[in-house]
Design a protein that fits this description.
It is a single chain. Helix content is 24%, strand content 25%. The protein contains three helices and five strands. The protein is globular, with a radius of gyration of 14 Å.
Length: 110
């Protein structure tokens, strides 16, 4: 995707990439980079139309999130009731939380 080390990953590149991933995945939903931004500014009311019952019939929900100068990924494994925090800069392995460890984040998995 990038062939110049001075080019930063931006929301357009991330959205184009996840759109391609989504084309080849029947069991995952890849949300756009705007999902978290809208959630952060408007709360649940801002994203409730994005979360349909059909979404939770999928095995994984993937959320790219932009932190200051850095991208992370959150993966919700609906059937296993797990939330994975994936950060290529600060974690060797994904940080995984079960429903019991992080009930507020997994309330949508019930």
């Amino acid at each position: 995707i990038l062939n110049n080390s001075s080019v930063w990953l931006n929301d357009i590149i991330i959205n184009d990439t996840i759109r391609e991933f989504g084309k080849n995945s029947e069991d995952c939903i890849f949300y756009s980079t705007y999902f978290y931004s809208v959630f952060r500014t408007r709360g649940f009311r801002g994203i409730e139309t994005w979360l349909t019952p059909d979404n939770f019939s999928k095995n994984k929900l993937i959320f790219p999130i932009h932190l200051p100068l850095h991208w992370i990924t959150i993966c919700v494994e609906v059937k296993q009731k797990l939330v994975q925090y994936m950060d290529s800069l600060f974690a060797v392995e994904p940080l995984v939380h079960s429903k019991e460890q992080m009930p507020e984040a997994c309330s949508v998995c019930r």
